[in-house]
Amino acid sequence: MEKISISILMLISCFVLAMRFEGVHGYKNYTVGDSHGWYDNLKDPKVNYQKWAAGKNFSLGDYLIFNTDKNHTVVQTYNLTIYKHCDYNNADSDDTIDWSAGEPEVSTEAVTMAVPLVKEGMNYFFSGNYDGEQCKHGQHFKINVTHGQGLPESLKNPVPDSPAPNSADNSDNVPDTVIPSNFDNPINGGDVKAASGAAGRNVRIGLVVFVFFWYSCCKYVWVIS
User: CB-based contacts of 37: which residues, under 8 Å, 6+ apart?
Assistant: First the structure.
């Protein structure tokens, strides 16, 4: 009876371990607007960023990737009033950040900005160009950021942001990329389900092998005893 109780306890422990690892995954990258990029309704009438954000689980340490051009900006704020007015001219530096590469310009030159999520609660995003006109034409959204796994070490004490180095061939087809220097390449949001599923399968396979080996050993012990 004692041997049977130990066997049951071991099997339960293996099951709990499998369930624990099943949901584990890394930080995520979310490409804002997916293939539509980050633009206002006048440039792309199909964009709906609040709809894009719906159903997604944003957590500390995740990144939002904005694919846009130099004629559109990325403003992140924790201030609802700033967000509602689409105007950050009088915003405090501790609650609003302009992630744009430089001064706005009438240019279709592509640019990519990577924005880390470093504060729990509501995060608001909009384009601040043309006195908020782009924001008022659909270029805005809000998300709720949960704790998740917490901030990675690289974001707990961030260093000043720096633009990514230019490519060696200086090709005009390669967009400028503004990525924080502490960017640690989390997995893409679209790959999370597959990645976590693969990890879960690997854990289950390992546990099956372990249980089989353990059972064989126990059976051998029972036989010789």
Answer: 44, 66, 67, 68
pTM of the predicted model as reported, rounded to 2 decimal places? 0.65
Residue pair 60/118 in contact (Cβ under 8 Å)? The answer is yes
- CA–CA dist 42, 58 (Å, integer): 28
Per-domain residue ranges of the chain:
26-191
- Report the run of H or E that residue 204 belongs to, with start and end: helix 192-224
Lookup: tokens for 60: 């500390």
CA distance 87 to 81: 9
Q: Looking at the domain 26-191, which fold is it?
A: Immunoglobulin-like (2.60.40)
Beta bridge partners of 121: 145
Measured CA to CA in angstroms, residue 118 lies from 145, 155, 217 at distances of 9, 7, 49
Contacts (Cβ under 8 Å, ≥6 apart) of 176: 70, 101, 109, 110, 111, 112, 163, 164
Find the range with the poorest average confidence among 6-20, 21-35, 53-67, 169-183.
169-183
Cβ atoms of 83 and 142 closer than 8 Å: yes
Give yes or no for a contact between 144 and 53, defined as CB atoms under 8 angstroms apart.
Answer: no
Do residues 82 and 135 lie in contact, with contact meaning Cβ atoms separated by under 8 Å? no
Residue range 68-84: mean pLDDT, rounded: 96
User: Please, are residues 143 and 93 in contact by the beta-carbon 8 Å criterion?
Assistant: no
Q: What type of residue sits at position 173?
A: N
